[in-house]
Specification:
mainly alpha, 6 helices, elongated
C-alpha cells in the first residue's frame, strides 16, 4: 500500500508538533524545516483543523498546536483521516466505477479486509510513540507510563 504525499506530509507535520506540544507551529516554519511547499502544508493543516486534530490561531504568535494529546491520537485513525478521499482502488471511491468485473470481482473484499487490518495494526501506535525528538531549547513531552517518582 502506498500512502499519498498528503498523508506523508501530514504525518511529518504531526510528528513534529508532537515533539513540542507547547509550541505553536506555523506552516512557514514547517515548510522551511521539511523543505516542502507551504501551500501544500496549508491545505493539510486546514484538513487537520477541520477534523479537530489541530487548533490554529492567526496573527503574531499564532500557528497550530495539537488539539488532542499525542498519546490519544492513533496512527491508523490519522492515516484514515488523511487518506479519506483517496481510495486504494477505483471501486472503493464515491464515483461510479468503470471496472468491467465489478459484479464478479473477488478481489474487492480481500482488499477491504487488508485495508482494515493495515489501519487496525497502525492503531496500536500513537502519535506520541513516533514523535520526532525535541529540538534544542524545546521542552520534550513527559515520558508516558512512568511509575511514581522515587524519593
Amino acid at each position: 500500500m502506498r500512502l499519498t504525499s498528503f498523508t506523508d506530509y501530514g504525518l511529518r507535520m504531526l510528528m513534529r508538533m508532537a515533539s513540542a506540544p507547547e509550541r505553536a507551529f506555523s506552516t512557514a516554519d514547517l515548510s522551511a524545516e521539511f523543505n516542502l511547499s507551504r501551500n501544500h502544508l496549508s491545505k493539510i493543516m486546514q484538513h487537520l483543523s477541520r477534523a479537530g486534530i489541530v487548533s490554529t490561531r492567526r496573527g503574531g504568535g499564532g500557528g497550530a498546536v495539537l488539539a488532542i494529546p499525542a498519546q490519544d491520537l492513533r496512527l491508523g485513525r490519522l492515516i484514515a483521516l488523511l487518506e479519506e478521499d483517496q481510495p486504494i482502488v477505483e471501486c472503493f471511491g464515491p464515483s461510479p466505477s468503470k471496472c468491467t468485473i465489478l459484479g464478479q470481482c473477488r478481489l474487492k473484499s480481500r482488499l477491504r479486509s487488508a485495508e482494515r487490518a493495515f489501519l487496525a495494526d497502525l492503531d496500536h501506535t500513537t502519535l506520541a510513540d513516533i514523535a520526532l525528538p525535541a529540538r534544542n531549547g524545546e521542552i520534550a513531552p513527559a515520558p508516558l507510563n512512568e511509575g511514581p517518582a522515587a524519593t
